[in-house]
UniProtKB/TrEMBL annotation:
<keyword id="KW-0963">Cytoplasm</keyword>
<dbReference type="InterPro" id="IPR008220">
    <property type="entry name" value="HAT_MetX-like"/>
</dbReference>
<feature type="active site">
    <location>
        <position position="325"/>
    </location>
</feature>
<protein>
    <recommendedName>
        <fullName>Homoserine O-succinyltransferase</fullName>
        <ecNumber>2.3.1.46</ecNumber>
    </recommendedName>
</protein>
<feature type="binding site">
    <location>
        <position position="230"/>
    </location>
    <ligand>
        <name>substrate</name>
    </ligand>
</feature>
<feature type="domain" description="AB hydrolase-1">
    <location>
        <begin position="54"/>
        <end position="363"/>
    </location>
</feature>
<feature type="active site">
    <location>
        <position position="358"/>
    </location>
</feature>
<keyword id="KW-0808">Transferase</keyword>
<dbReference type="Pfam" id="PF00561">
    <property type="entry name" value="Abhydrolase_1"/>
</dbReference>
<comment type="pathway">
    <text>Amino-acid biosynthesis; L-methionine biosynthesis via de novo pathway; O-succinyl-L-homoserine from L-homoserine: step 1/1.</text>
</comment>
<comment type="function">
    <text>Transfers a succinyl group from succinyl-CoA to L-homoserine, forming succinyl-L-homoserine.</text>
</comment>
<keyword id="KW-0486">Methionine biosynthesis</keyword>
<feature type="active site" description="Nucleophile">
    <location>
        <position position="160"/>
    </location>
</feature>
<keyword id="KW-0012">Acyltransferase</keyword>
<comment type="subunit">
    <text>Homodimer.</text>
</comment>
<feature type="site" description="Important for acyl-CoA specificity">
    <location>
        <position position="327"/>
    </location>
</feature>
<keyword id="KW-0028">Amino-acid biosynthesis</keyword>
Amino acid sequence: MLFWNMTEPNSSVGIVVPQTAHFDTQIALKGGGSLPAYELVYETYGTLNAEASNAVLVCHALSGSHHVAGYYADKPKSLGWWDNLVGPGKPLDTNKFFVIGVNNLGGCYGSTGPMSINPATGKPWGSAFPFVTVEDWVNVQTRLADYLGIRQFAAVLGGSLGGMQALDWTLRYPDRVRHGMVIAAAPKLSAENIAFNEVARQAILSDPQFHGGDYYEHGVVPVNGLRLARMLGHITYLSDDAMAEKFGRRLRDGGHKFGFGVDYEIESYLHYQGDKFAGFFDANTYLLTTKALDYFDPAFDYNGDLQAALARAKADFFVASFTTDWRFSPERSRELMFGLLHNGLNVSYAELDSAAGHDSFLLDDVHYHAAMRAYFQNIEV
């Protein structure tokens, strides 16, 4: 087992190298499918202590990956998606904690997913790849923990969909996590969120280049569908105030073109984000991941009683929300907080002022990071 702890003056974890864990044991999935074997790509930062008691698992959101912090030797600008939070002296301090990031099953960053080769056919899985759920991700993450020699995590955390995974960890494996940190998330999606996800999926499914999910064999990518899905999603990640401040109604070229091209800076920005996303993300992974979001509901098997569902948890909790996050509003975090408190659990709750909307959990906000730092400092290892 290899670990990296390359401290640099700028508090970066430095150069990191992805690793791959191979699992030969078949896994049955919640949706009824199965995989005969699979691989998980992950990265680690810091050093696992002798008792293996200082491990922290970071779960990623929809388009995230295992690359949480640091950068690659051949791509010095390739900072991890939560590099502002994870590193020596940062809120999640790698001088104290051993941090793990893993690409979820069904992902497109190296873990087994629709782009991987199906051993039964010798071709990419494509449309044949089985549905995966949050519960499936948590189950395979436990196998990775066993592989790394970790019986219990000091903390499991994540934002958005990552926060849902952190919550599920505390319910599915209550003895294997001491602290659950659920940030900018909710115990289940609202009808509005499911609606947004469905429109995004339809953009992909209706793209002529989608080919029923088997576009790999045709040598094409459903670019237009991916672009539209990302453009729609990105609107929901920002607040109205953030859009107004960053773009307002500013015209790109100073005047109206009276056509259906790009007039406004916000339009240009959305086109840029859509084009960039379509250049690296897999359409099948997008479909699977948004469906996993929709299906997650710990209270489903408890007749909708969230308090009863949360009774399984034993961990202490940190729950955080952001005032302008209308996709996962503070009301949803408070719903979770009260459910945990009613079960006699220790809960720290931070409702943070931010103009950035849902994306706030990714940003370097002084009050947000101060709250995270304070909580991590009180975690005993």
